[in-house]
Amino acid sequence: MKVRLILFVFLLTALAAAQSADFSRLFDPNSDYRYRGQFRPTFYRTVDETQFTGGKTVAVRDAEGNEIAAVSENFKKHLDIEGSGRLADGRVINFHSRATDGIRYRVVDVRFGLGVRNYQLLPYRSIAVDPTKILIGSVVFIPQAVGIPLPDGTFHDGYFFAHDIGGAIKNDRIDLYVGFESDVDNAFTRSGKLANLQPLDLYVVKGVMARSMNTRFRMQYEHRYIKQTWEMVAADFDSLMQYTNTRFKKLNERIQYISQRGLGTPYLIFNLGEGPQAAYDPDPTMDFGRTDCMTFCEHTLALSLSGNYRDMYKTLQKIRYKNGKIGMKTRNHYTIADWLPNNDWLLYNACEEIGKEYCSQMTKTIDRKKDFLGMGMPEADLQDVPPPQTLTVSYIPTENLLKIKDRLQGGEVVSIVSSKPGIISAHMGIIVIDEWGNVIFRHASSPRKTHEVIDERLEDVVNYLSKSSSRVGMLFMRTKEDTRIGDVTR
Predict the structure, then answer these.
(1) Quick one: pLDDT at residue 116?
(2) pTM
(3) What per-residue string of b and e applies to 468-477 under the rule 16 or more CB within 10 Å gives b?
């Protein structure tokens, strides 16, 4: 026990001594830690009505204009700045909306208040960010916070959750939440390591550490526990499809919502097959507990097109196999040569529509028989496999991708195009437009540092592609909006 304590103290001492270092050099830019630059902090809190004096002359109103409580003018002033407060009777109220006569609130059944997307605020863990700079939901690391003593007797590890926004929190500003402590006198400012507008290094964290932090705190920051698809059983899928079909009338909207419920799904390449009796690939025909890039897109589309679990399974097989006939040779192995044309009832290549003057073309030859032989299939089983196929497709080169960003509508299925011979698509994902206008590439990420379904800003993906020697652009597929729920399985 003494050895562990000595090691812990040594680590804190080493990190504290490094406070003046250039932290951008501590982490490989291709690692789990993505450096976002320096941000100037301020601090915010949940205001406590019992700490304010004065007559209760001002009304706090709900979204409909009904009075929640009468409070002092001074308390209301600070409440409007901070966004959440605890009334003298113990109720916690939270910012709801702005009206012509002022800010409206709602009573919430949580201890401190809520950030955006109903994330519960956690003292010394939640931060408010500019969502166009840091994606909401991100785990972030601020090395200057490591070792700061906290009110509960522990020491901060430097990790936070980007779970809130603020009207004044723009560009290089962040707001650190301190619970009921003062936003002037709190554990952060008392430590002497953090002060208002003193620049802090900020990293967005991916991979193992992000998963660890989310696992550790998820039950605390989630207002109501919502299952992701990789946690669901059949009845949960039925409920998800019923909810989604009622709330979202457009297919591309359902795709974006359903794909969000797939975030965090563990990655496993070649995770589906033709079932346990199959001669060549005995993996299951459906498994939401794991995914690869193509499977993630297929699962998302099947759920977005179906009304119940039984129909969803049938839809998934129609997407995965030519005419829905399950078999190794009928599987849509090649995204552009098989998957897209065999799903022309649902998808089309929208590159010319989106890219117009920014499009290029690529010609490749696909040799299915050669690849099947490489998988160990005997030539006797391949007599009906078509000969090598040469095809030309339109795509948008990397250098033009940000030029067409504003033309995307969300819900597009993306193929990352490869320059390697015999292959067009090297990776797949889905475009999502969030409520702050961010264009996000949501995908099943294969590197060990992430290895799950994640969100990445399109700008970051384009930056990665610009440094790749073989991944040269994107091909965008759009769904046909007149494809209605149930059409596939009738």
Answers:
(1) 95
(2) 0.88
(3) eeebbbbbbb
* 264 Cβ contact partners less than 8 Å away, ≥ 6 residues apart: 211, 214, 228, 230, 452, 453
| Residue 60 · residue 105 · CB < 8 Å | yes
Q: Say if residues 144 and 11 touch (Cβ distance below 8 Å).
A: no
Residue spans of the domains in the chain: they are 18-44+115-221, 47-108, 232-479
CA dihedral (349, 266, 235, 295) positive or negative: positive
- Give the CATH architecture of domain 18-44+115-221: Beta Barrel (2.40)
- pLDDT tens digit string along 385-402? 999 999 999 999 999 999
218: helix, strand or coil: helix
Given strand 102-108, what is the order of strands in its sheet? 47-48, 84-86, 92-99, 102-108
pLDDT digits (tens, 9 = 90+) for 266-318: 999 999 999 998 989 999 999 999 999 999 999 999 999 999 999 999 999 99
Give the CA angle between residues 333, 338, 343 to the nearest 5°.
115
Rounded distance, CA 197 to CA 39, Å? Answer: 8
b/e 409-448 (16+ beta carbons within 10 angstroms → b):
ebbbbbbbbbeeeebbbbbbbbbbbbeeebbbbbbbbeee
Structure token pair of residue 202: 């900020």
Res 485: pLDDT = 54
pLDDT in tens, 403-444: 999 999 999 999 999 999 999 999 999 999 999 999 999 999
| φ, ψ (nearest 5 deg) of residue 71 | -135, 170
> 2-11, 227-236, 291-300, 419-428: which has the minimum mean pLDDT?
2-11
CATH architecture of the domain 232-479 equals Orthogonal Bundle (1.10)
Token pair, residue 328, equals 């190794």
Give CA–CA dist 473/465, Å, rounded. Answer: 7
